Amino acid sequence: MMHISCTFKKTNLGMAMSLKRSCTSSSQEVVLRDEDLLTLILLRVPRTRHNLLKSVSKQWQCLITAPHFRNLLPPLRASGLFIQVPVEVSSGDNVYFVPLDDPRTAPLFRNLEKVCILQSCNGLLLCSDALRTHYVYDSSTDQLASLPRHGLDTGNGFRYVGLAYDPSKSLHYKVIAFVTRRRAQLFHHERDFYVYSSETKTWKSSVQSFISGPGMYFNDGVYWKGRMHWLSSLNYVSEPESALSECLYFNVDEERLGTFPRPPIRVWSNSRRSLYFGESEDHLHVVEARPYANSLSVYEMKSDYSEWFVKYRIDLDPISRDFPEIKEKDMFDEENDHEPVVNVLSLIRRENFHEDSFAVLEIPGKAIRYNLVDRSFQLIRDFGADLDFDPKINDYSLCDFTACQYIVNLNV
């Protein structure tokens, strides 16, 4: 009887295991057949795993690379900053990484030490070297891809002005540049656009061009909503109704020029230190750090390009109480404190992750993370302690830092 009982138990166990396998197999088949359910599951997988998952099957590869799937992905998240200091300021390395969330985040950036950072866009950086060779740097793989020189790039009139990359639409990037030709009118220039595509690996001329008059300058372009944007200056009050009254954008796919309103700030200096213009999680911002101001206003552009509005205000008085070095001394009166001097290195939006948005501010010698919601702040980098500054330079406020967001590339 014992033998029969054991046999019966083993049989029941085998049937249970077989039934479990059958149910599991059946559940897997249901998931695999239901693309909507599979999409919801894959959307919860970290972006860095998507490339591996594409090798599972042709079905998964088609699903992950489909535009619909990419449009459902949350915005790309900046997890750190690459900060580059001028070579003349530091006698050591001139590129440093500042993590914004996990202090253990430490990407490779050996190849970044060889070049000068010009602009960042969704995980890629536009760079150049001393020989005027331009590169696109992938911060997720530490790889530099050199751009071929254009025939018109003689070093006098050719300028690289923007990197356009949106991994939610395509894994290929474009670089926008223009040639400047002086016209007969004094101080007027004609600018012709050229576009480089990583897909074709060639430059092509665009049908678009425009004429800029006196007072129009172009700092770093910012890519937003498929367009490259530039803020124009207006130094000459004698031309209030000219094209200078608006800023320009270049629709990358359509190769079409358009205008958008100038922000309600002065936008007159070419210095990176006086102006922050950038994009974060599909929001376009501009901040002007006026000398000796007690507060900063963060402006955001409406998605329909109708107007700029004040999104945040940054009160500098509490920061100056905790960090007195933010106030510069009068060189002729050491006992007289001036108002705070500050620079905006980056602005990070975080609403999609149920976290507070924040700004990274540079005061002389330090970087501070400022919470834009509860207005708390904390020191995240002491450049005076971390960097091997040239002892002949004792004024850190002269440092023209370049800060670019580190974003894990979707194509990793």
From TrEMBL:
Every F-box associated beta-propeller type domain range: 115-312
InterPro entries from the UniProt entry: At3g26010-like, F-box-assoc_dom_typ1
Pfam families xrefs: FBA_1
PANTHER family, A to Z: F-BOX DOMAIN-CONTAINING PROTEIN, F-BOX PROTEIN INTERACTION DOMAIN PROTEIN-RELATED
Name of protein: F-box associated beta-propeller type 1 domain-containing protein
Organism name: Daucus carota subsp. sativus (Carrot)
Lineage of source species: Eukaryota, Viridiplantae, Streptophyta, Embryophyta, Tracheophyta
